[in-house]
Design brief:
Blueprint (H helix, E strand, L loop, with lengths): L2 H12 L11 E5 L2 E4 L4 E4 L2 H4 L8 H13 L10 H14 L3 E5 L2 H20 L5 E5 L8 H5 L4 H4 L9 E4 L4 H7 L4 E7 L1 E2 L5 E2 L2 H14 L2 E5 L23 E4 L10 E5 L1 H5 L15 H16 L2 H22 L3 E7 L2 E6 L4 H9 L2 E2 L1 E2 L4 E4 L7 H17 L1
Parallel strand pairs: 3-15, 5-6, 5-7, 7-10, 10-11
Antiparallel strand pairs: 1-2, 2-3, 4-12, 8-9, 11-12, 13-14, 14-17, 16-17
Helix pairs in contact: 3-11, 4-11, 12-14, 13-14
Bound molecules: pyridoxal-5'-phosphate (PLP).
Length: about 400
């Protein structure tokens, strides 16, 4: 094998083995396509796990970043800067939330959300034994707090003890949530659409009942929109399709258009009654380069009518996947919303994904039996057609 294999062998000498990587060394991207270092083109239906919403090599986005690099990339949070103000104003506008704290990743946004919820409860009763209810099959990140609320035992076990007082319920089973509520419950945390866990959308009735319970008992509703938010489900945030509003929400992945950023946002009620000066901080979070990326991403969403586009192309993707699901006995069902879709198989999907990769289509799994579709939000119908043609061949030949 050529150059690519050499690089892969080199990588395996130096990187910690925490991933089973695809045997591809990527070089560059253009629109919805990626290219490896040997020049092979791939149609990308993963977008770096839901990150590259606007596709690759977006000139306007890149120029905005280059401009900011030449001015200032970091200030620390002891100073104000203009990009952080602009990015926060934009995020407030599209989310209807009131206060923003910028982080460098999704897991950090979850950590902040947990701290805000605990502090809110602490200020109410002075106690330090509050509980959080999270969902089985959820994914919230790999740091100790985020891991503690992640509903997958295999991810948690070796690292215990994690933060305590976490209880688990089942998504879309309101009785299981009620059964975990005690007078110590300070927050209920869930992904509006579960991503890693297998693409499970929260049902309307379930989420609205959880919201009603939270309102009644002054329990904070925390919605993790890190994967399902930022337009992917056909609205800026997936919860906006329900009659609910979170007290705290998290975003990351697509919000930075490819830059490593995240944020947790809250209502004024929580903002005024939780984290105060000295309670939380970050060296890099909200730096001018990251915030220039967020601001430009949000401007481009607006200018290019990304939300409207996802609503229509998402519907088309759904129809085409439904069609494929009827054609093959090995497909159990399609699940998902907008451009966050999953095809559930009755067997492991690894060989289908590998076959697709050979044929120039990048896909990813969610668990062993689900193929996950998280394309850049700018894909059009012809990209969906190209994808489904390759997928059919891959299913047949795998
Ligand atoms: C990816 C993800 C996270 C963690 O984000 P990182 O940036 O990897 O720390 C948390 N929650 C959800 C729903 C995610 O998809």
């Amino acid at each position: 094998m050529g150059k690519m294999q050499d690089y892969i062998e080199e990588a395996e000498q130096v990187l910690l083995h925490t991933y089973n990587r695809y045997q591809i060394v990527l070089d560059k991207g253009e629109g919805v396509h990626l290219y490896d270092i040997e020049g092979k083109e791939y149609l990308d239906f993963v977008s770096g796990i839901g990150v590259f919403a606007l596709g690759y090599h977006n000139e306007e986005f890149n120029s905005a970043l280059k401009e900011q690099i030449d001015k200032l990339t970091h200030t620390s949070n002891y100073f104000y800067n203009i990009p952080v103000i602009e990015a926060a104003k934009k995020l407030k506008e599209i989310s209807g939330m009131d206060r923003v704290f910028f982080t460098n990743s999704g897991a950090e946004a979850i950590e902040g959300a947990i701290k805000a919820a605990r502090k809110y409860a602490y200020l109410k009763d002075g106690k330090t034994d509050h509980e959080i209810i999270a969902m089985e099959h959820s994914f919230h990140g790999r740091t100790m707090g985020a891991l503690a609320v992640t509903g997958k035992k295999a991810y948690r076990e070796a690292f215990e003890p994690l933060i305590g007082n976490i209880r688990f319920a089942n998504l879309n089973d309101i009785e299981s949530v009620k059964a975990q509520i005690t007078d110590k419950t300070c927050a209920i945390l869930l992904e509006t659409v579960q991503g890693e866990g297998g693409i499970y959308p929260a049902e309307k009735k379930f989420l609205e009942e959880v919201y009603a319970i939270c309102q009644k008992k002054d329990i904070l509703l925390i919605l993790d929109e890190i994967q399902c938010g930022m337009g992917r489900c056909g609205s800026y945030f997936a919860w906006q399709r329900y009659s609910v509003k979170p007290d705290i929400m998290t975003t990351a992945k697509a919000v930075g258009g490819g830059m490593p950023v995240g944020a947790f946002l809250m209502t004024e009620k929580v903002g005024a009654n939780s984290l105060k000066a000295g309670d939380h901080g970050t060296t890099y979070g909200g730096n001018p380069l990251a915030c220039a990326a967020i601001k430009k991403t949000l401007d481009l969403f607006e200018e290019n009518h990304i939300i409207e586009h996802v609503a229509s192309v998402g519907e088309y993707l759904k129809e085409q996947l439904d069609l494929i699901a009827t054609e093959y006995d090995c497909i159990v069902e399609r699940r998902g919303v907008g451009l966050m879709q999953g095809l559930v198989f009755d067997k492991p999907v690894g060989s289908i994904i590998a076959k697709a990769m050979e044929k120039g289509l990048i896909l990813i799994n969610a668990g062993t039996d689900v193929i996950r579709f998280l394309p850049p939000l700018i894909i059009d119908k012809s990209d969906v057609d190209t994808m489904t043609a390759i997928l059919r061949e891959a299913i047949e030949q795998a």
